[in-house]
Write a structure and sequence with these properties.
The protein is mainly beta and 1037 residues long. It has six helices and 76 strands. It folds into three domains: 1-28 and 54-111 and 133-326 and 339-359, no CATH class; 585-778, no CATH class; 779-1030, Lipocalin.
């Protein structure tokens, strides 16, 4: 075949099956394709007792002998979109051999009765037992030996395919007998129009005795696959759709999808389902399918895929990248779609399938995948990257068929001796798979008749299905090393999915498997999934600098080889290695959050120089270690101690344990009960050797810890818990009241909402910080409203003494008739004292009143006041408004003034209390309502000093009663307080001295400046009591 060079920079859109966007093919050989044959028979019968007999035979022509395929180069810069089945975006193929395909042989036989008026509504014959059908289809063989040429495909455009079997890029070099041995197909022909195809495929065929024998043609003799290079920097999206039956009608559903990139070099007669030893397709009823074999041995060529764009696939088995080098007759076996008859038991047939192997195994070459882009798949069994080098007749078994079909009817044969090549995968982007059995990266090197699926794996992937024999029965030859390097993230979310799965297997010798996770996170799926899984291999190593975990809880699962895990990052979950010589080293600075099991082998070693934490911080976990445990001086065993039920972490060692370094304790303290606790944290069936193991525990004013070696097999931690430590001298009386309340809450079992508060209290390192924490829980600052209300009312009652006369006898003390109005602002401060919070109060007041004479020397007045205030305490901010109304009676006798006043009022206040527990920024909000009444009695005596000065002595006694309604805070979860209602009475005594005078101006204006000094003494005390409880406390508290 000649060389082919294709370049596209435009927009290409195709419709219809097999309609490729770009098709570049070079065929070596002298004759091209063998002829196709089609025999079709449709019988119509309306008689209930009649019979119909069909006999159809079809033989495909043989392909010619060949020359080498040419070199192919494809460069796509444009957008390609296809909408048909098997319609690849870019299809590049170089085939050496007889010139393409052996001829297809197709037969079509249907019995239609009078009710078959519509294509999709056909009914079976009225009496199908009288009907017989025999159809034989023999596909032609491919041509003789020659090599496939090299391929180089570059894509920087966008490629979208919309139907099943439509790959974004398909690049294939095939040596040997050509691309396709002829297909033997009964029941339908590939060239039949799609609507007719669907009808024929799904119409009811009522044959009881319906035997169809399909023989696929063989591939030609040996030839080597050429080198295949695919570079993608564009975006590729593939969608998969297919037909199934729904109560006799055809409906569209998601089904098999296309690959994003398929790069394949095949020696011998191998290839994919449409380029291999011929297919044998079977349908609904009793048929025998015999797949065509490959020719004599040929080697696969080197395959290199470089990806830096974005790949997204959907559909069953729709891998994003497939890079495969196959020697012999291997390749990708076609989907074995054995469609069950959904109509009657009468026409349910059997369809055994026989896959023919290669005659002599060729070798797979090296496979190299360099991925720096984004990859996502959404189908079951759809891998992110599949990189495979297979010797012999191996390949991939993609889709085992519909659920419910016994897989035991698939028989694989063994090819000759062949070896798998080296496989290298490097990925630096993100891989996300959503389907079941959808691995992130699968790298495989296999010798002999290797296949990607064994019986055991199928049983894992398809629980409950009957798989009585091995699909892959033998691995002759050698396999090579596998290197997987990750610098990104792999997230698999389906059941039985592995983030990284690597296998090297050969009967003579297996290669080493090296997995290096330089950075990023690796997450396996659920059920039997794992972050990393080794299959076979010789000396396998995992270097982890990232994070490895799985939804199943399985971090790493080993195989039959020797396995070494070197952890420099984070491993989370179970580690179960195989029967080889195994070693797990947790290096300094690394973290191993173990699960239920670490299985290394009876005397195999876990060497911990990093941090081993069963379950991870804050999760109680018992880890069973099968193996020996050595902790170095740099190592730490981190244990969560359960301070409620003594059921924290424990490491159980099946062999001996040698301990140095540190045993670090963290408290699971949310439900910590006051008292003494003892918990075994490490046990060993062998002897525990303590080489200066040091206990490290966080400083706590609430909990103390001690390390105990109970005997030669057990180490324990003893802890003492007290939220009200008796030896502490830093706790205030109010703090101790709260501490006693906390002890009561925890002894009663605690609560979910209070648990974070208890944890925060345990975390306080010393008595001073514990006292500060309790102050944030203390409601004492809420009591300042009562005392400040009393002070404000005193000021208002004093303001009602304001109607003085201008002249006359005793004018400095005399009262007259007046109205008054005042606006003032004030600021008061209180220092923080032991038991009393400090605060600043700012007020803005508008007040006024009137006064009139009601008798000789007697006056009566009324006043009204509105006040807005803002109070900022240490941890509390309160804003509110207050309204007060008062009355006053005054009587003057010479220089003596007697007065009595009374007032009442109401205030409403919004309060924010900063808790800062369990974390900074936690705020409790509340609304408080205050009611109050005040009475005052006052006597004063004036002493005039000449005509313009005076001295006044005053004494005031008063009583203020306040009532604050109950309220409950919100916004602080477990720290919210429920505050009970409170009544407070304050009795005050105010001795005062006033100095004043009078200045008259020529204009007649009189100024009377004065200075008053005094003191207000609260005879009953200035403090207000607040009774509160944690809203989160159990009901019994």
């Amino acid at each position: 075949g000649g060389d082919v060079n294709v370049s596209n920079s435009g927009f290409i859109r195709t419709e219809g099956s097999g309609s490729y966007g770009v098709f570049a093919q070079s065929l070596g050989g002298g004759g091209g394709a063998g002829g196709n044959s089609l025999t079709g028979l449709i019988g119509a019968s309306g008689a209930s007792k009649g019979s119909v007999t069909n006999l159809s035979t079809s033989v495909g022509g043989q392909g010619g002998n060949g020359n080498d395929g040419g070199t192919i180069m494809v460069n796509n810069l444009g957008m390609i979109e296809t909408s048909g089945y098997g319609a690849h975006g870019v299809y590049a193929q170089s085939i050496g051999g007889g010139g393409g395909d052996g001829g297809n042989a197709n037969t079509l036989s249907l019995i239609l009765d009078k009710e078959c008026a519509l294509m999709f509504k056909c009914k079976k014959s009225a009496n199908s037992k009288n009907n017989f059908n025999l159809a034989i289809a023999v596909g032609g063989d491919g041509g003789g030996a020659s090599d496939g040429g090299s391929l180089n495909v570059t894509n920087s455009g966008d490629i979208i395919t919309h139907e099943a079997g439509s790959n974004g890029i398909m690049a294939q070099s095939v040596g040997g007998g050509g691309g396709n041995g002829g297909n033997g197909t009964n029941g339908l022909g590939l060239k039949i129009p799609v609507d007719t195809l669907i009808g024929a495929y799904y119409s009811q065929v009522g044959f009881l005795k319906d035997w169809q024998i399909d023989v696929g043609g063989d591939g030609g003799s040996s030839g080597n696959g050429g080198e295949v290079h695919v570079t993608n920097i564009g975006n590729i999206t593939t969608y998969g759709k297919g037909f199934i039956l729904d109560e006799g009608e055809v409906i569209l559903v998601d089904a098999a999808g296309g690959y994003g990139i398929l790069a394949q070099s095949v020696g011998g007669g191998g290839g994919t389902a449409i380029a291999r030893g011929g297919d044998a397709n079977v349908g609904l009823t009793g048929k025998i399918g015999i797949g065509g074999g490959s020719g004599t041995s040929g080697d696969g060529g080197e395959v290199i895929v470089t990806h830096s764009g974005q790949l997204m696939t959907s559909g069953l088995g729709a891998h994003a990248i497939v890079a495969q080098s196959v020697g012999g007759g291997g390749g990708i076996a076609g989907d074995v779609n054995r469609i069950p008859n959904p109509f009657t038991d009468e026409s349910l047939g059997t369809s055994p399938l026989f896959g023919d192997g290669g005659e002599n195994g060729g070798n797979g070459a090296s496979v190299d995948v360099q991925s720096m882009g984004i990859i996502s798949t959404v189908g079951h069994g759809a891998f992110g990257i599949l990189a495979q080098s297979v010797g012999g007749g191996g390949g991939i078994v993609n889709n085992p068929g519909f659920d419910g079909i016994p897989l035991g009817h698939f028989f694989g044969t063994v090819a000759g001796r062949g070896s798998g090549g080296m496989v290298t995968v490097e990925h630096s982007g993100d891989i996300v798979t959503l389907g079941d059995g959808a691995h992130g990266i699968f790298a495989q090197s296999a010798g002999g008749t290797s296949g990607s699926v064994t019986r055991e794996e199928l049983q894992e992937m398809l629980p409950g299905k009957w798989v009585p024999i091995e699909i892959v029965t033998q691995f002759d030859g050698y396999s090579s090393a596998i290197d997987v390097t990750l610098r990104g993230n792999i997230i698999t979310q389906g059941k039985d999915s592995f983030a990284i799965l690597a296998q090297s297997i050969g009967d003579d010798a297996s290669g080493d498997v090296n997995i290096i996770i330089e950075s990023g996170s690796v997450q396996g799926g659920s059920a039997a999934g794992a972050g990393v899984k080794f299959l076979d291999g010789k000396d396998n190593v995992l270097f982890n600098h990232g994070t490895v975990l799985a939804l199943s809880g399985n971090a790493v699962i080993g195989g039959e080889g020797n396995e070494v895990i070197k952890n420099y990052g984070t491993l989370i979950g179970n580690i179960e290695l195989g029967e080889g010589i195994n070693l797990l080293t947790n290096h300094a600075g690394a973290l191993l959050n173990s699960g239920n099991n670490i299985v290394l082998g009876v005397n195999h070693l876990l060497n911990n120089s990093g941090n081993l934490s069963p379950g991870g911080l804050g999760i109680a976990q018992i880890t069973s270690l099968t193996g020996k445990y050595i902790q170095t001086q740099e190592g730490t065993l981190s244990i969560d101690v359960d301070l409620a039920h003594d059921l924290g972490d424990r490491l159980e060692v099946s062999s001996t344990a040698e301990l140095a370094g540190k045993l670090s304790v963290s408290a699971m303290s949310g439900y910590a009960k006051p008292g003494s606790h003892e918990q075994v944290v490490l046990s060993a069936e062998g002897t525990i050797t303590d080489n200066t193991l040091e206990l490290t525990a966080p400083s706590s004013a609430v909990v103390s810890y001690d390390l105990l070696q109970l005997n030669q097999n057990e180490i324990a931690i003893r802890s003492e818990v007290d939220f009200n430590p008796a030896q502490s001298k830093a706790l205030s009386s109010n703090a101790r009241s709260v501490a006693k309340h906390v002890n009561a809450i925890q002894n009663a079992g605690g609560s979910e909402s209070f648990a974070p508060i208890a944890e925060a209290l345990v975390a306080q390192p010393d008595d001073k910080s514990l006292n500060t924490a309790y102050e944030h829980l203390i409601p004492e600052s809420l009591g300042t409203l009562s005392t400040e209300t009393a002070v404000s009312s005193i000021a208002f009652n004093d303001a009602m003494h304001s109607c003085r006369k201008r002249d006359g006898a005793y004018r400095f003390v005399s009262e007259g008739e007046c109205s008054w109005f005042r606006i003032d602002g004030g600021k008061r401060e209180q220092d923080d004292t032991y038991g009393n919070p400090g605060y600043d109060l700012k007020t803005f007041t508008v007040a006024g009143g009137v006064q009139d004479k009601i008798g000789t020397g007697t006056h009566f007045g009324v006043g009204l006041s509105f006040q807005r205030s803002a109070l900022n305490a240490t941890i509390t901010e309160t804003k509110g408004e207050q309204l007060e109304m008062g009355f006053i009676v005054k009587h003057q006798s010479d220089a003596i003034m007697l007065s009595g006043s009374a007032s009442f009022g109401y205030g409403t206040y919004d309060t924010e209390r900063t808790i800062n527990l369990p974390s900074p920024g936690v705020i409790a909000e509340s609304n408080q309502k205050m009611y109050f009444q005040t009475i005052h009695g006052r006597i004063s005596r004036d002493f005039e000093q000449g005509s313009s000065r005076y001295l006044r002595l005053l004494m005031d006694i008063g009583a203020i009663h306040t009532y604050r309604g109950e309220f409950t805070e919100k916004g602080a979860n477990g720290a919210n307080l429920h505050v009970e209602s409170e009544n407070d009475t304050f009795v005050t005594l105010q001795p005062m001295v006033e100095f004043g005078g009078e200045i008259s101006l020529s204009s007649g204006t009189v100024f009377r400046p004065y200075f008053r000094v005094g003191a207000t003494h609260f005879l009953t005390g200035y403090n207000s009591q607040v009774t509160a409880a944690m809203e989160s406390a159990p009901n019994s508290i």
